[in-house]
Protein backbone atom coordinates (compact mmCIF):
# COMPACT_ATOMS: atom_id res chain seq x y z
CA UNK A 1 0.00 0.00 0.00
CA UNK A 2 1.49 3.30 -1.10
CA UNK A 3 2.05 6.00 1.48
CA UNK A 4 0.36 9.35 0.63
CA UNK A 5 2.86 12.09 -0.01
CA UNK A 6 2.52 15.76 0.78
CA UNK A 7 3.63 18.30 -1.80
CA UNK A 8 4.32 21.74 -0.37
CA UNK A 9 4.32 24.18 -3.31
CA UNK A 10 6.75 27.07 -3.39
CA UNK A 11 5.09 30.44 -3.76
CA UNK A 12 6.69 32.65 -6.40
CA UNK A 13 6.55 36.38 -7.04
CA UNK A 14 5.10 37.55 -10.33
CA UNK A 15 6.39 41.10 -10.10
CA UNK A 16 9.27 41.50 -12.55
CA UNK A 17 9.06 37.78 -13.28
CA UNK A 18 10.85 37.04 -16.55
CA UNK A 19 8.74 33.94 -17.26
CA UNK A 20 5.24 35.05 -16.28
CA UNK A 21 4.51 38.69 -17.05
CA UNK A 22 1.35 40.73 -16.46
CA UNK A 23 0.05 40.11 -20.00
CA UNK A 24 0.24 36.35 -19.33
CA UNK A 25 -1.74 36.69 -16.08
CA UNK A 26 -4.29 38.98 -17.72
CA UNK A 27 -4.90 36.43 -20.46
CA UNK A 28 -5.35 33.65 -17.90
CA UNK A 29 -8.00 35.72 -16.09
CA UNK A 30 -9.75 36.79 -19.30
CA UNK A 31 -9.92 33.18 -20.52
CA UNK A 32 -11.14 31.84 -17.16
CA UNK A 33 -13.02 34.59 -15.23
CA UNK A 34 -14.44 32.07 -12.75
CA UNK A 35 -10.99 31.67 -11.14
CA UNK A 36 -11.51 35.05 -9.45
CA UNK A 37 -14.25 33.63 -7.23
CA UNK A 38 -16.80 36.30 -8.15
CA UNK A 39 -19.42 33.81 -9.33
CA UNK A 40 -20.61 33.37 -12.89
CA UNK A 41 -19.16 36.38 -14.68
CA UNK A 42 -18.29 37.11 -18.28
CA UNK A 43 -15.72 39.45 -19.80
CA UNK A 44 -17.09 42.67 -21.33
CA UNK A 45 -13.80 44.39 -22.09
CA UNK A 46 -10.08 44.27 -21.41
CA UNK A 47 -7.68 47.23 -21.34
CA UNK A 48 -10.75 49.48 -21.49
CA UNK A 49 -9.78 53.04 -22.42
CA UNK A 50 -11.00 55.63 -19.90
CA UNK A 51 -12.20 59.10 -20.85
CA UNK A 52 -9.82 60.82 -18.42
CA UNK A 53 -6.86 58.71 -19.47
CA UNK A 54 -5.60 55.29 -18.49
CA UNK A 55 -6.91 51.79 -19.18
CA UNK A 56 -9.09 49.62 -16.99
CA UNK A 57 -7.67 46.09 -16.84
CA UNK A 58 -11.01 44.28 -16.95
CA UNK A 59 -14.73 44.89 -17.05
CA UNK A 60 -16.88 41.88 -16.15
CA UNK A 61 -20.62 41.41 -15.63
CA UNK A 62 -22.71 38.78 -13.89
CA UNK A 63 -26.02 37.26 -14.95
CA UNK A 64 -27.93 40.05 -13.17
CA UNK A 65 -26.13 42.74 -15.15
CA UNK A 66 -23.91 43.85 -12.28
CA UNK A 67 -20.55 45.16 -13.49
CA UNK A 68 -17.13 44.62 -11.92
CA UNK A 69 -14.32 47.08 -12.63
CA UNK A 70 -11.19 45.04 -11.97
CA UNK A 71 -7.59 46.24 -11.62
CA UNK A 72 -4.63 43.86 -11.41
CA UNK A 73 -1.45 44.77 -9.54
CA UNK A 74 1.54 42.44 -9.52
CA UNK A 75 3.34 42.90 -6.22
CA UNK A 76 1.85 44.85 -3.31
CA UNK A 77 -1.03 47.29 -3.33
CA UNK A 78 0.02 50.93 -3.27
CA UNK A 79 -1.91 54.20 -2.93
CA UNK A 80 -1.87 54.89 -6.68
CA UNK A 81 -3.33 51.45 -7.35
CA UNK A 82 -6.16 52.03 -4.87
CA UNK A 83 -6.96 55.49 -6.25
CA UNK A 84 -6.82 54.27 -9.84
CA UNK A 85 -9.23 51.41 -9.13
CA UNK A 86 -11.74 53.67 -7.40
CA UNK A 87 -11.41 56.33 -10.09
CA UNK A 88 -12.19 53.81 -12.85
CA UNK A 89 -15.12 52.45 -10.83
CA UNK A 90 -16.50 55.98 -10.42
CA UNK A 91 -16.14 56.76 -14.13
CA UNK A 92 -17.94 53.58 -15.16
CA UNK A 93 -20.80 53.92 -12.66
CA UNK A 94 -21.45 57.51 -13.77
CA UNK A 95 -21.28 56.52 -17.44
CA UNK A 96 -23.62 53.52 -17.07
CA UNK A 97 -25.97 54.53 -14.28
CA UNK A 98 -28.52 51.85 -15.17
CA UNK A 99 -26.14 49.17 -13.85
CA UNK A 100 -24.92 48.28 -10.37
CA UNK A 101 -21.10 48.55 -10.15
CA UNK A 102 -18.46 47.05 -7.87
CA UNK A 103 -14.72 47.82 -7.72
CA UNK A 104 -12.27 44.92 -7.46
CA UNK A 105 -8.57 45.15 -6.59
CA UNK A 106 -6.30 42.16 -7.25
CA UNK A 107 -2.74 42.13 -5.91
CA UNK A 108 -0.12 39.66 -4.73
CA UNK A 109 -0.02 41.33 -1.36
CA UNK A 110 -2.80 43.33 0.26
CA UNK A 111 -0.90 45.57 2.65
CA UNK A 112 -1.88 47.02 6.01
CA UNK A 113 -1.81 50.47 4.45
CA UNK A 114 -4.53 49.34 2.04
CA UNK A 115 -6.83 48.48 4.94
CA UNK A 116 -6.02 51.81 6.59
CA UNK A 117 -6.99 53.73 3.46
CA UNK A 118 -10.16 51.73 2.86
CA UNK A 119 -11.25 52.17 6.49
CA UNK A 120 -11.43 55.92 5.86
CA UNK A 121 -14.43 55.31 3.60
CA UNK A 122 -16.36 53.63 6.40
CA UNK A 123 -17.50 50.66 4.31
CA UNK A 124 -19.65 52.81 1.98
CA UNK A 125 -17.86 51.73 -1.21
CA UNK A 126 -18.74 48.49 -3.01
CA UNK A 127 -15.17 47.17 -2.97
CA UNK A 128 -13.66 43.68 -3.08
CA UNK A 129 -9.96 42.90 -2.55
CA UNK A 130 -8.48 39.65 -3.88
CA UNK A 131 -5.00 38.35 -3.07
CA UNK A 132 -3.25 36.54 -5.90
CA UNK A 133 -1.00 33.67 -4.85
CA UNK A 134 1.19 32.08 -7.53
CA UNK A 135 2.93 28.71 -7.32
CA UNK A 136 5.05 26.77 -9.77
CA UNK A 137 4.69 22.99 -9.71
CA UNK A 138 6.56 20.76 -12.17
CA UNK A 139 7.15 23.71 -14.46
CA UNK A 140 3.46 24.73 -14.49
CA UNK A 141 1.97 27.87 -13.00
CA UNK A 142 -0.82 27.57 -10.43
CA UNK A 143 -2.83 30.71 -9.62
CA UNK A 144 -4.93 30.89 -6.45
CA UNK A 145 -7.22 33.88 -5.93
CA UNK A 146 -8.33 34.45 -2.32
CA UNK A 147 -10.92 37.07 -1.37
CA UNK A 148 -9.48 38.94 1.62
CA UNK A 149 -11.96 41.82 1.72
CA UNK A 150 -15.55 41.22 0.74
CA UNK A 151 -18.05 43.87 -0.07
CA UNK A 152 -20.02 45.09 2.92
CA UNK A 153 -23.71 44.69 2.08
CA UNK A 154 -25.56 47.97 1.92
CA UNK A 155 -27.78 48.56 4.89
CA UNK A 156 -30.83 50.67 5.41
CA UNK A 157 -30.74 54.30 6.43
CA UNK A 158 -30.98 54.81 10.17
CA UNK A 159 -34.26 56.63 9.73
CA UNK A 160 -35.74 53.54 8.07
CA UNK A 161 -35.14 51.37 11.12
CA UNK A 162 -36.29 53.82 13.78
CA UNK A 163 -39.81 53.52 15.17
CA UNK A 164 -42.31 55.64 13.23
CA UNK A 165 -45.90 56.76 13.61
CA UNK A 166 -46.90 55.05 10.35
CA UNK A 167 -49.78 52.63 10.87
CA UNK A 168 -51.45 49.78 9.04
CA UNK A 169 -54.31 52.14 8.16
CA UNK A 170 -51.85 54.53 6.48
CA UNK A 171 -50.68 51.73 4.18
CA UNK A 172 -54.24 50.57 3.46
CA UNK A 173 -55.22 54.12 2.48
CA UNK A 174 -52.38 54.49 -0.03
CA UNK A 175 -52.38 50.91 -1.37
CA UNK A 176 -55.14 48.39 -0.66
CA UNK A 177 -56.56 46.27 2.13
CA UNK A 178 -55.97 43.10 0.12
CA UNK A 179 -52.28 43.83 -0.42
CA UNK A 180 -51.58 44.78 3.21
CA UNK A 181 -53.38 41.61 4.29
CA UNK A 182 -50.80 39.62 2.31
CA UNK A 183 -48.06 41.09 4.52
CA UNK A 184 -49.96 39.80 7.52
CA UNK A 185 -50.25 36.35 5.93
CA UNK A 186 -46.47 36.34 5.48
CA UNK A 187 -46.03 37.33 9.12
CA UNK A 188 -48.03 34.23 10.12
CA UNK A 189 -45.58 32.07 8.18
CA UNK A 190 -42.65 33.83 9.81
CA UNK A 191 -44.17 33.36 13.26
CA UNK A 192 -43.93 29.60 12.73
CA UNK A 193 -40.16 30.20 12.72
CA UNK A 194 -40.00 32.84 15.48
CA UNK A 195 -43.12 34.04 17.26
CA UNK A 196 -41.43 37.31 18.34
CA UNK A 197 -41.44 38.64 14.75
CA UNK A 198 -43.79 41.56 14.14
CA UNK A 199 -44.55 43.83 11.21
CA UNK A 200 -42.83 47.23 11.23
CA UNK A 201 -44.71 49.87 9.22
CA UNK A 202 -42.41 52.56 7.83
CA UNK A 203 -42.97 55.28 5.26
CA UNK A 204 -41.50 53.38 2.32
CA UNK A 205 -41.97 49.69 3.14
CA UNK A 206 -43.25 47.20 5.68
CA UNK A 207 -40.32 45.57 7.44
CA UNK A 208 -39.92 43.35 10.48
CA UNK A 209 -38.94 43.59 14.10
CA UNK A 210 -37.33 40.73 15.97
CA UNK A 211 -37.77 40.96 19.71
CA UNK A 212 -38.80 44.60 19.28
CA UNK A 213 -35.69 45.51 17.24
CA UNK A 214 -35.82 46.24 13.50
CA UNK A 215 -34.33 43.38 11.49
CA UNK A 216 -35.26 43.62 7.83
CA UNK A 217 -34.36 40.27 6.33
CA UNK A 218 -37.77 40.59 4.66
CA UNK A 219 -39.07 43.84 3.21
CA UNK A 220 -42.60 44.08 1.80
CA UNK A 221 -44.09 46.71 -0.47
CA UNK A 222 -47.89 46.57 -0.83
CA UNK A 223 -49.67 47.51 -4.04
CA UNK A 224 -53.04 48.91 -5.06
CA UNK A 225 -53.64 45.54 -6.71
CA UNK A 226 -53.99 42.34 -4.62
CA UNK A 227 -50.27 41.53 -4.89
CA UNK A 228 -47.26 42.33 -2.74
CA UNK A 229 -43.60 42.74 -3.69
CA UNK A 230 -41.19 41.13 -1.25
CA UNK A 231 -37.42 41.39 -0.98
CA UNK A 232 -35.94 38.40 0.86
CA UNK A 233 -32.39 38.92 2.04
CA UNK A 234 -30.35 35.89 0.98
CA UNK A 235 -26.90 35.33 -0.46
CA UNK A 236 -27.30 34.44 -4.11
CA UNK A 237 -26.85 30.75 -4.84
CA UNK A 238 -27.77 28.17 -7.47
CA UNK A 239 -29.73 26.28 -4.79
CA UNK A 240 -32.00 29.25 -4.02
CA UNK A 241 -32.35 30.03 -7.75
CA UNK A 242 -33.53 26.46 -8.33
CA UNK A 243 -36.04 26.56 -5.46
CA UNK A 244 -37.58 29.80 -6.78
CA UNK A 245 -37.63 28.64 -10.40
CA UNK A 246 -39.34 25.34 -9.56
CA UNK A 247 -41.97 27.12 -7.46
CA UNK A 248 -42.86 29.32 -10.43
CA UNK A 249 -42.88 32.64 -8.58
CA UNK A 250 -43.00 35.89 -10.51
CA UNK A 251 -39.53 37.35 -9.98
CA UNK A 252 -37.61 40.57 -10.41
CA UNK A 253 -33.80 40.73 -10.93
CA UNK A 254 -31.64 39.80 -7.94
CA UNK A 255 -30.44 42.91 -6.07
CA UNK A 256 -26.75 42.13 -5.55
CA UNK A 257 -26.00 45.35 -3.67
CA UNK A 258 -28.54 44.51 -0.96
CA UNK A 259 -28.36 40.71 -1.35
CA UNK A 260 -32.09 40.42 -2.02
CA UNK A 261 -34.25 38.06 -4.01
CA UNK A 262 -37.34 39.94 -5.18
CA UNK A 263 -40.71 38.26 -5.74
CA UNK A 264 -44.25 39.40 -6.51
CA UNK A 265 -46.69 37.29 -4.53
CA UNK A 266 -50.44 36.82 -4.75
CA UNK A 267 -52.76 35.24 -2.20
CA UNK A 268 -52.73 32.08 -4.32
CA UNK A 269 -48.93 31.97 -4.08
CA UNK A 270 -49.04 32.31 -0.30
CA UNK A 271 -51.81 29.74 0.10
CA UNK A 272 -50.48 27.09 -2.27
CA UNK A 273 -46.73 27.62 -1.91
CA UNK A 274 -46.51 28.34 1.81
CA UNK A 275 -43.98 25.55 2.36
CA UNK A 276 -41.60 27.00 -0.22
CA UNK A 277 -42.04 30.52 1.15
CA UNK A 278 -41.36 29.25 4.66
CA UNK A 279 -38.18 27.52 3.44
CA UNK A 280 -36.90 30.77 1.89
CA UNK A 281 -37.79 32.75 5.02
CA UNK A 282 -36.05 30.17 7.24
CA UNK A 283 -32.89 30.46 5.15
CA UNK A 284 -33.01 34.26 5.39
CA UNK A 285 -33.68 34.15 9.13
CA UNK A 286 -30.70 31.85 9.73
CA UNK A 287 -28.37 34.00 7.61
CA UNK A 288 -29.34 37.45 8.90
CA UNK A 289 -31.05 37.22 12.28
Automatic annotation (TrEMBL):
<protein>
    <recommendedName>
        <fullName>DUF5655 domain-containing protein</fullName>
    </recommendedName>
</protein>
<dbReference type="GO" id="GO:0003676">
    <property type="term" value="F:nucleic acid binding"/>
</dbReference>
<dbReference type="InterPro" id="IPR011856">
    <property type="entry name" value="tRNA_endonuc-like_dom_sf"/>
</dbReference>
